[in-house]
Amino acid sequence: MAKQIPTRADDYAQWYVEIVKRADLAENSDVRGCMVIKPYGYAIWEKMQQGLDKMFKDTGHVNAYFPLFVPKSMFEAEEKNAEGFAKECAIVTHYRLKTDPNNKGKLIVDPDAKLEEELVVRPTSEAIIWSTYRKWIQSYRDLPILINQWANVVRWEMRTRLFLRTAEFLWQEGHTAHATAMEAEKETLQMLDVYADFVENFMALPVIKGKKSEGEKFPGAIDTYCIEALMQDGKALQAGTSHFLGQNFAKAFNVQYSNKEGKLEYVWGTSWGVSTRLIGGLIMAHSDDDGLIIPPRLAPIHVVIVPIFRSEEEQTKISAAVGPLITALRHAGLSVKFDDRDTHKPGFKFAEYEMKGVPVRMAIGPRDLENGTVEIARRDTKEKHVMNVKDVVVEIPKLLEDIQKNMYARALKFRTEMTTTVETYDEFKNILNSKGGFVLAHWDGTAETETKIKEETKATVRCIPLHSTAEDGKCIYSGKPSKMRVLFARAY
Amino acid sequence: MAKQIPTRADDYAQWYVEIVKRADLAENSDVRGCMVIKPYGYAIWEKMQQGLDKMFKDTGHVNAYFPLFVPKSMFEAEEKNAEGFAKECAIVTHYRLKTDPNNKGKLIVDPDAKLEEELVVRPTSEAIIWSTYRKWIQSYRDLPILINQWANVVRWEMRTRLFLRTAEFLWQEGHTAHATAMEAEKETLQMLDVYADFVENFMALPVIKGKKSEGEKFPGAIDTYCIEALMQDGKALQAGTSHFLGQNFAKAFNVQYSNKEGKLEYVWGTSWGVSTRLIGGLIMAHSDDDGLIIPPRLAPIHVVIVPIFRSEEEQTKISAAVGPLITALRHAGLSVKFDDRDTHKPGFKFAEYEMKGVPVRMAIGPRDLENGTVEIARRDTKEKHVMNVKDVVVEIPKLLEDIQKNMYARALKFRTEMTTTVETYDEFKNILNSKGGFVLAHWDGTAETETKIKEETKATVRCIPLHSTAEDGKCIYSGKPSKMRVLFARAY
After folding, report:
1. A344 at the B interface (CB within 8 A)?
2. Hey, what long-range contacts does B321-327 have (CB within 8 A, 24 or more apart)?
3. For B269-296, what is the mean pLDDT?
4. Which of A299, B55, B80, B360 is the most exposed place for a label (fewest CB within 10 A)?
């Protein structure tokens, strides 16, 4: 490894950039705002996809694929949605290049190949999907439709950060259609639960479920629900959203069904998504000053085995002893890497796998061979201990389970410590400036107050928590009556 | 089911369209040339992805993700590649829409948001990937790079056909970088073998491996290898390609590495891909006049169970008896659907699952319950037989294996019958017009002859087969000397 990376305390933003770079997760491309997801980062995304895809299918959803392009007239049909995304859309206007007559070997856009109607590169797919659902839905028998799509989308962000905010990103977007409002609302909340389950149990990251304020909801939705997670710098990250669309898109695209009585009604909809942004959240929530820490359930490599040898003979002996161990661990369902490069020293390798966040490291030297032991180091706590070789296959899966739990517990403890209940605006500002984190405070529910607070403190209403109890109080800003506390934070 | 579909003999093209539609695989979208892949069609693609992805990983490849957009100056760097794709590129020129001042609620492209440099929506990713590899490769130690990407690409085709030729399609594209020409050539052929293995063993479709002629090779490649399959109408389908890129992209993007002696050399490259086009090939190769026939290894549903009942009581009894059977089949790794809808009669369901190509249908009525039997129908041959319930869990997996093999054998028999060796141009034309299929003939190897034959007969050199023996002869067209026969056909 080259020079030290900045610590989280010194420069959290730069620390994040260095982790992404040195753990070989992603990098900026030569295309403005677009990233290259490198193999190790993509392997984490594949693990996320597998986990989520199974949960979607277990709840009755199927995958499908809809076009990348949305004709402008279709895009603008749901006006609020269109307005919400219009300012950040990549627009295709031509379908051909031609040789530049003034510059041999160069190409120019062929002015004769201008499209009659411009195409918007999807920033989200409600428009194209609801225009398709119109053809699929006639009767109540055609409902519900429970479809998910894995896709790339483009939002022309001016300020981008790897994983957290990029012009192109990968995501999944669920789009469902239902006969009744109640069924659609149930679906919206079910998928919020699926997301919370995933983030808590795979990513080892506790979340607060809640509803967005009017100002923060998805353009075109009636209600937007979200899960909010806390990063180590005390800022919040929206980790997933689930929208109750009401009949907004059904009306915009004239999607009606005949009910059991033969009467025509508009269809009710939901949409929900999580993206490669989750990888940013994973890094920021768990990693330390030595690098990434990946929860075992999402780790591309569970166990790295580093042999310690001084001669070729020792190397050969260790390799021979390690072989059956690798086989046994793989049979137990674990992903194992044996790094027997003789071009790098063990210390270098240790640092490399710490940087890459591999949950368990196993070192084996000549003395271990004699003793029938290995040295185990866990990445989350950096604790080391000696283990008998014969226990490895039983103990390592347990250790991984323990790491997964410990990471969650640690993140939960952090969040608990970093959640403050305040009564006054002064307290509110003090907490934000001194400590950060989540702040529970009374709010009068108006957009005006929300905007003022945001302007003055950069904190926003992250959500109106689903599971908080009613409590009469006064808005910290306006002093007007409030029925419950909402969750404030500065956010990514 | 509505009215009969045209038979293959009557109207093969329309038969194909109807199968795609009625088996619920895909449909045209409202976006010119782009398709919607419906859940059942997408489920086949997911099976293909799983099969291929495992084969790629087993041969040492990893997945990654590169940007959708390619800046024009980067796109044009490898001139032959750029020239090859320039005429069919979607071009992004603007990044924002704004409210139309003359038309409330409508949007127009914001002329102030014109990009300084236009972006090409990737038709293939060599340019963006090699411009990235330049940053990753310094030394021989950084090689090889063995990366695959699952992605969408856009090629502005004027005449489109569902799955076979669409403006946007899904595919995988492998892009590898090597220290030596020999290693890159070995990789090129290895991936050709992987594709052949997949198409033959998953898709149950025999292929001919070969090399493309100069005129048909990938723009920017030194050599293009392909696998060619035969469809039931006697036309060929290129099912996958693997390109030896030489140092063309390395030179265009200045990707050099220092070898073991410390000397700078250009890197050698390959690229290889298969796409959703394979689904079109699957349909056209195997299906019959009653619908799709899916080989078991790619079937989203292996077994459909249809209960035959006249009363609710019978229905309940059958359901109770079927429950443990479903569980047992699922434990055996099979995908089982139990269709107990009481809104449709068994005959309707039989036709529906025939149309959808489910490999095995199991029907159970009251008499079966008494006898402890089920009625099994296999989709490939339409044979029916009675099976003891207690044998189902052992026999069904064997039956699926048998269907898989039989489908391959049938396709191979067809191809053998439809491959003709000819000596003269008259024979060549006669065979093409009377019978079609693959035609093996001598060719002088020149582009002129290839073009003439194509103009006169619409047949092209599909490939120069890898495994044919040298044989002196005379070109059927020019009479000039030829060293071996090549594979001709009319093609999709």
Report:
1. no
2. B321/B364, B321/B369, B321/B389, B322/B364, B325/B389, B325/B392, B325/B393
3. 98
4. B80
Interface test with B, best of A25, A62, A78, A95 (most B CBs within 10 A): A95
Q: Which DSSP symbol is given to A470?
A: P
By DSSP bridging, strand A208-211 and strand A303-307 are unpaired
Residue to test with chain A: of B95, B139, B175, B343, most A Cβ within 10 A: B95
Which residue type occupies A445?
Answer: G
Could you tell me if B322 and B355 are in contact, meaning their C-beta atoms sit under 8 angstroms apart? no
Query: What residues are paired with B109 via a beta bridge?
Result: B97
Q: Which domains does chain A have, with CATH numbers?
A: 12-286 (3.30.930.10), 303-399 (3.40.50.800), 419-489 (3.30.110.30)
Q: Which helix (H) or strand (E) holds A227?
A: strand A223-230
CA distance B100 to B131: 39
Structure tokens at A101: 């007559």
- Residue B47 contacts residue B40 (beta carbons within 8 Å): no
Does residue A431 sit at the B interface (CB-CB below 8 Å)? no
Which residues in B lie closer than 8 A to residue A38 (C-beta atoms)?
A: 64
Q: In this complex, is the C-beta atom of A62 within 8 Å of any C-beta atom belonging to chain B?
A: yes
Smallest Cβ–Cβ distance between A168 and the set B37, B67, B343 belongs to: B67
Q: Which residues of A touch B162 (CB under 8 A)?
A: none
A70 touches chain B (CB under 8 A): yes
3-state SS record for B381-414: CCCEEEEEHHHHHHHHHHHHHHHHHHHHHHHHHH
Residues 109-148 of chain B with CB under 8 A from chain A are: 109, 118-121, 128, 131-132, 135, 141, 147
A116 to chain B, closest Cα gap in Å: 11
Chain B residues 195-234 with CB within 8 Å of chain A: none
Interface test with B, best of A50, A99, A107, A158 (most B CBs within 10 A): A107
- Cα-Cα-Cα-Cα torsion A166, A167, A170, A172, nearest 10 degrees, comes to 110
For residue A423, the distance in angstroms to the closest alpha carbon of chain B comes to 42
In this prediction the ipTM stands at 0.97
Whether the model pTM is above 0.90: yes
Q: What does each of the 492 residues of chain A score in pLDDT, given as a tens digit?
A: 456 899 999 999 999 999 999 999 999 999 999 999 999 999 999 999 999 999 999 999 999 999 999 999 999 999 999 999 999 999 999 999 999 999 988 999 999 999 999 999 999 999 999 999 999 999 999 999 999 999 999 999 889 999 999 999 999 999 999 999 999 999 999 999 999 999 999 999 999 999 999 999 999 999 999 999 999 999 999 999 999 999 999 999 999 999 999 999 999 999 999 999 999 999 999 999 999 999 999 999 999 999 999 999 999 999 999 999 999 999 999 999 999 999 899 999 999 999 999 999 999 999 999 999 999 999 999 999 999 999 999 999 999 999 999 999 999 999 999 999 999 999 999 999 999 999 999 999 999 999 999 999 999 999 999 988 889 999 999 999 999 899 999 999
Which run of H or of E encompasses B313?
helix B312-331
For B66, the closest chain A residue by CA position comes to: A36
Q: Where are the alpha helices (DSSP H) in B156-276?
A: 181-201, 248-252
Provide, as residue numbers in chain A, all residues whose Cβ is less than 8 Å from the Cβ of B43.
62-63
> 3-state class of B311 per DSSP?
coil
Any A CB within 8 A of B94 CB? yes
Looking at chain B from residue 40 to 59, which residues have their Cβ under 8 Å from any Cβ of chain A?
42-43, 45-46
CA distance A479 to A444: 8
pLDDT tens-digit series, residues B326-356: 999 999 999 999 999 998 999 999 999 999 9
